[in-house]
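We close this part of the discussion by returning to an individual protein. The amino acid sequence and the backbone structure tokens for this protein are reproduced below:
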Amino acid sequence: MSILGFLKPKPATAPKDADLADFLTGFSIEVMPRTAEKVEDFAAILPRGTRVYIAHIDGTPIEDMVATAARLRAEGMEPMPHFPARIIADRAMLTDWVTRYRDAAGVDQALLLAGGVPEPRGELATSMDLLGSGAFDGFKRLHVAGHPEGSRDIDPDGSMKNVDEALLWKQKFSERTDAQMAIATQFCFEAGPVIEWANAIKAAGIDLPVHIGVAGPAKLQTLIKFAIACGVGPSLRVLQKRATDVTKLLLPYEPTEFTADLARHKAANPDFNIASVHVFPLGGINSSATWLSAHSKDEE
């Protein structure tokens, strides 16, 4: 056989969607201490300077949270720990946590939220309590939770009344602080309702940038389980519809269509208030990192 027979052309790489690559610029991702342990080196799978949220699940020792933050910092990431108000016993504990994070990992970014437990352990019950505590004075960036599809924990009647009032309060707080604030949302699956929600809060006077929650690649059954547990409502129909399509049932879900739809809307409407993407790696951080690498701008 001629040597030319061995010189097969490399398979062509599909060109990246330019709008989507722009939209994914500055993405963030989320880990827990136990999932972080499975990653050999964050610098090998994520761009330097990536904001990595550290989810604080009730029962996780603060020592494990702080150690994860320190490791992320050492590997070139920007750690952003969760502060769930309802699992913090008192202001002394809150101050202690902030001090530990600052001393061990130089943390100056935080996601403030109520937390998933039904009853607060002490006087702190909401992200507004945390914002008003003064514990985060001097932080560079503070994010709060957003709920494009509402939250039954906050509005048991299914309305958006309490959610919207809380966002208006946080908007006013943002005007009194030097910290950069943003809304990090629950994960969603359908662009249309997200666009309507983002436009609605902006029309109501809330101009905080939105970091839209995106479920990373995962098995369909995994996504449906998390969606039900996390209270994702209307856009759950996207997953249910996919489950009835036998050609897609066994294939892993990827958020390409959802994010591409938002990216096209952003390109056509530059003042659209969704500013960034936050990835929940429900199918594992490595698969999410691979998807992000495939669709993001190449590092220079």
Summary: The first strand starts at residue 28 and ends at 31. Residues 91-105 form the longest helix (15 residues). Residues 1-13 have pLDDT under 50 and may be disordered. DSSP finds twelve helices and eight strands in the chain.
